[in-house]
Write a structure and sequence with these properties.
Structural class: mainly beta
Shape: elongated
Number of strands: 8
Protein name: Lipoprotein
Strand content: 35-45%
Oligomer: single chain
């Protein structure tokens, strides 16, 4: 009797599992043909921790989408008077002219003039002093 109940439960479970609607796969909004550049740079600090910065960028029209990944254990913060290791922001230069400071890991440079440009990203402490980590990439709008 127990065996027949187990068999019936298994058959019902299989039947219900087979009636499940096909799950829709999530659509990605990835940009095809986007250029992704990975940059690793290390800097040894006084407390012997290495920090690395990885930059991904994509150009859409006249906008540049940037993602800065700082590892390990980095937190983007607005500027402060006191320097704290592992906190800060990035400053972006376009053709050696300051575009702006960003206290977020991902941001957009909008309405960049058409043409070829050198884009430099520097990592700053939260007191706006430099970590000594920067990367320059070339982009074409």
């Amino acid at each position: 009797m127990k065996k027949s109940m187990i068999i019936i439960i298994c058959l019902v479970t299989l039947a219900l599992g087979g009636c499940k609607e096909e799950q829709q796969k999530p659509e990605s909004e990835g940009v095809s043909g986007g250029e992704v550049m990975e940059v690793l740079s290390t800097h040894t600090t006084s407390d012997k921790k290495d920090i690395s910065m990885t930059i991904h960028h994509t150009v859409k029209g006249q906008d540049i989408y940037l993602e800065c990944i700082i590892t390990p254990n980095f937190e983007f913060k607005e500027s402060r008077e006191t320097k704290k290791q592992g906190e800060g922001q990035v400053v972006v230069y376009l053709d050696n002219k300051k575009w702006g400071n960003f206290a977020k890991g991902a941001f957009i440079l909008k309405d960049v003039p058409r043409g070829k440009h050198n884009l430099t990203v520097k990592l700053l402490h939260n007191d706006l002093t430099e970590y000594g980590i920067e990367q320059t990439i070339q982009v074409e709008i």
